[in-house]
Specification:
Strand order of the largest sheet: 5-4-3-6-9-8-12-7
Order of helices and strands: EHEHHHEHEHEHEEHEHEHEEHEHHHHHHH
Distance between the termini: 41 Å
Number of strands: 12
Helix content: 40-55%
Shape: globular
Radius of gyration: 23 Å
Largest sheet: 8 strands, mixed
Structural class: alpha/beta
């Protein structure tokens, strides 16, 4: 399969206030429509190489320590089994391990069966309203709107709406610049004050005239054929209520964290969502790129905009909430691997953990919502996949605190055994992500799977327990100036 190379400098530059006519008139992406792979080419750095080398040295050291400390591990295992809580704990962990193995095998089977739906012809494509909410995105919104306008989608069937949600920077200026460039191809609106992404999307839904709504984050760039690929499942499958796009990382030219996240995103989307899609039950359509059937949206729009959690208005997780409400109606929610969007992710630790806290809080809330209908007769077709994926997420949430307590106990009693076994486990379990990315894209970038697992295990392990404890808290967290 051929790869398309995308240079991030082609999309945006903070130092430049204008884009040349050549850049504006050319495609943001290559035009080989049949390609399934997008390789984002960026130069390596000495620091990045040092991180990768350090990652492998740590994991090898961990494996060697496990070899040296076999007797200590056996003694610890014996002491744990002999304790009052040890044997029941072993039974529970064995059951959970077998369950997780079963889910993984099922997901792998569904992934192997998955195939993206090819684009339909122009005359079959439905009318489409694209909604781009923006808050404090600056010039990035300009790039987003131009990439959407450059899409290979019939212009007469496309309505492009951009909504500034009371930004405090120059976002509105760049929307006006895009309007000046694109003319009637885009309509721009400005909220009187910042009300949150959900309200900006709501305004777009109410103003939209298309049969299909497409939501795109204002820091994202779409491939030329992304829109037609994203929308085609609605034509082929009349039971399709929503479609998730394939999100990849745009801004990993300089920062280490985006390089790690790029590998993680490929695993999350191209493996996990492919499996969920084969079951007709993608649990979350991403804010970066998603499409919804108009009727499905308006069936739940009042509930969605007025959604609350523990008495407080919900101002996060609007994408997961919409997906949940559409699944509840009995619609299928699919994933299109050939509908690629590149989006910006945080480049520093603070921005990253805030993003993960928001996602984790939303996950807690929406799993509770899904629990209300998952085991009811919410659709005529098979519900096994939807229920299995829901249970898998729920078990992870339920086991968060028991796992944390065991980890802290293990560290306190046998810190060396904990460290060595954890490093070896990262080496073993992250190899699947590495091999998956290497198969889909390139071997060199795939090694970031190990660094990401190491980084997450030792610096972000607190996210899930904190998010559960603060699930009722409001706030986007990552949209300040």
């Amino acid at each position: 399969m051929e790869s398309e190379t995308i240079i991030s400098e082609q999309f945006y530059s903070n130092r430049s206030s204008a884009i040349s006519e050549k850049a504006l008139n050319s495609s943001f992406f290559g035009t080989k429509e049949k390609s399934q792979k997008v390789h984002v080419e960026r130069p390596t750095s000495p620091f990045g190489l040092a991180v990768l080398i350090g990652t492998f040295l740590l994991m090898i050291a961990g494996g060697y320590l496990v070899y040296l400390l076999q007797e200590d591990f056996e003694q610890f295992h014996f002491e744990r089994i002999a304790s009052t809580w040890g044997f029941p704990f072993l039974i529970v962990t064995t059951i959970l391990f077998l369950y997780q193995s079963g889910v993984f095998l099922y997901s792998s089977f569904m992934y192997l069966k998955y195939k993206p739906i090819p684009s339909v012809s122009d005359d079959l494509l439905p009318t489409c309203t694209i909604i781009v909410p923006a808050y404090n995105e600056g010039k990035l919104v300009w790039d987003t709107l131009l990439s959407l306008a450059d899409s290979d989608y019939p212009a007469e069937k496309l309505q492009l709406l951009a909504i500034d949600d009371g930004s405090k920077d120059d976002t509105w200026y760049w929307m006006q610049e895009a309007k000046a460039k694109l003319g009637d191809r885009v309509t721009i609106f400005q909220q009187p004050k910042n009300q949150g992404k959900r309200h900006a999307l709501y305004r777009g839904f109410k103003l939209g005239t298309g049969e299909i709504f497409v939501t795109v984050d204002s820091d994202s760039i779409v491939k030329k054929d992304t829109l037609r690929n994203l929308v085609s499942p609605f034509v082929v499958n009349k039971k399709c209520g929503a479609v998730a796009g394939n999100v990849q990382v745009l801004n990993n030219k300089k920062a280490i964290l985006p390089k790690m996240l790029n590998v993680s995103f490929v695993m999350s989307f191209e493996f996990q969502r492919s499996a969920e899609s084969q079951a007709g039950s993608v649990l979350c359509t991403p804010g970066a790129l998603a499409a919804y059937r108009r009727d499905a949206v308006f069936n739940c729009l009042p509930e969605w905009i007025n959604q609350t959690f523990m008495g407080q208005p919900s101002d996060i997780g609007e994408d997961r909430a919409m997906t949940n409400m559409i699944l509840k109606q009995g619609f299928h929610v699919l994933f299109q691997r050939n509908a690629v969007v590149l989006t910006n992710v945080p480049e520093d630790y603070k921005g990253l953990y805030k993003m993960f806290i928001r996602w984790s809080r939303s996950n807690v809330r929406e799993n509770l919502m899904m629990a209300k209908y998952a085991f009811k007769d919410f659709r005529k077709e098979s519900k096994f996949g939807a229920r299995l994926f829901f249970l898998n997420q729920s078990f992870k949430i339920l086991m968060t605190y028991p796992f944390l307590l065991f980890m802290l106990f293990f560290i306190a009693v046998h810190p060396v055994l904990f460290l060595s076994s954890t490093l070896l486990a990262i080496l073993l379990f992250s190899s699947f992500s590495m091999l998956f990315y290497a198969k889909r894209y390139t071997l060199a970038e795939s090694f970031w799977a190990y660094s990401y697992s190491l980084f997450y295990t030792f610096s972000l392990f607190w996210i899930a327990p904190y998010a559960i404890a603060t699930a009722s808290k409001r706030g986007w967290l990552t949209r300040g100036l």
